[in-house]
Amino acid sequence: MAEAYRGVIGAFPYAFRQGDSLFFRLYVIVGTLAALFIGGLFTLALVVWIGQTAATPGGSLTLSRTFIAVVGLFTAGPLLAPTLLVARKHRKGLSYHPRYDTIMAALGYAFLISLYVAAIISMPESFTLDGEVVTRPQPSGLTAPIVAILYAIPQPGAIAPPAGLLGVMAAVHYALSR
After folding, report:
1. For the whole prediction, is pTM greater than 0.90?
2. In which band, very low, low, confident or very high, does the pLDDT at 95 lie, cut at 50, 70 and 90?
3. Strand, coil or helix: what is 129?
């Protein structure tokens, strides 16, 4: 079965076929599509940023362009990690916790939710769009109290949910690998 595994690209169909649970197999699809979507957004953001700053000489702009790419990798990469780790586990025939695939998929979904939470936290109170000042929507509905709390967190705190989940994912992988 290991012959069907051909590098990083082949890891995704391999993990899908070898996954122990339907929950994990669904995550392979959702996580891969989410990583492609987020990667595409960051690629477009980088293209737009380069287009807007093309006439300006390097220096700090080169650093900010690189920063966009690095943030994109740190955003899309952890969405792919559960799939790649499970594919590695099955390919090498390593002994892991019996529910490893399901637990890693759950952490992948949690990381996806943490990105959404980070987006809510980082949303500015107002911003200019095509010369018009736009304010963020007021929380309403069933989730209004949660959204209000997230709005109250300072914008630099938006990094905490994804970074925390990334640490949890690494710790759980390590603990279940023993």
Report:
1. no
2. confident
3. strand
